[in-house]
Specification:
Elements (H helix, E strand, L loop, with lengths): L8 E8 L6 H17 L4 E3 L11 H7 L7 H13 L2 E10 L6 E8 L5 E6 L5 E5 L2 E4 L12 E4 L2 E5 L8 H9 L4 E3 L6 H19 L2 E4 L3 E3 L5 E3 L3 E3 L5 E4 L5 E8 L1 H9 L12
Parallel strand pairs: 1-2, 2-3, 9-10, 10-11
Antiparallel strand pairs: 1-16, 3-4, 4-5, 6-7, 8-9, 11-14, 12-13, 14-15
Amino acid sequence: MMLDDRSQTVRVACVQTCSGRDVDQNISYTSRQIIEAVDNGAQFVLTPEVTNLMEENNQALRARVGRQGDDKAVAAFSALAKKLHIYLLIGSLGLHDDAGEKLVNRSVLFLPDGSIAATYDKIHMFDVDLGGGETYRESANYAAGDKAMVVDLPFGKLGLSICYDVRFAHLYRTLAKAGAQMIAVPAAFTKVSGQAHWHVLLRARAIETGCFILAPGQAGLHENGRETYGHSLIISPWGEVLAEGGETTDIIYADIELAQVEEARGKIPALQHDRAFSL
């Protein structure tokens, strides 16, 4: 399913999963969702954060994931992208880094031949106290990335981000100024923070960058007791919600036209209006 005309419409699907502690089961279920999305015409499919494993215990994480070159989820999704001949963003996978010393929370973008076009390691770690005993320390398990990423695909330029990154507007402005027309925001938003902030943050990122926002989310009560918000979103550069998921496993679709990016930026050219200032 080759796309080489940037004026054409691209059918995008965001699959919404409820990952557990069994990597094989997570791969199997997500693969079925991806196949269903392609059966419904999707040309570019995205999955949520931690697609391969929802686990907070560091020892269990280390035992169940591999390096990018030998991880079973990477191999499975590479083969699936090739079989279906699609562009596939696995929103993130828990992986060992190349040295095998640290874990990374990594987006992996596959091309229709199964090769990896780009990876992105989550920059901002979710270390928060939400109240009511709900505390998260992502940095206890994962090393933060330090490099932003924009990928030039045949149908447009894609900026990569993951979940908590969405609260750092300067990252998204940087991606847009580097040419991004679409920005992926795969997530595992908690239900508490999702109800309060998910829609507002994602619509704001779309409006201020003039980009399509593609945000597949984890949804439901997970095996480790964590509850995630769902409500995967595809948002236009004008801030319009084109598709939204519910609070259980789901697939959402939208036909996006990248000409809308320049149209939105032409109406409000905020990216051109940045000025230096002092405080």
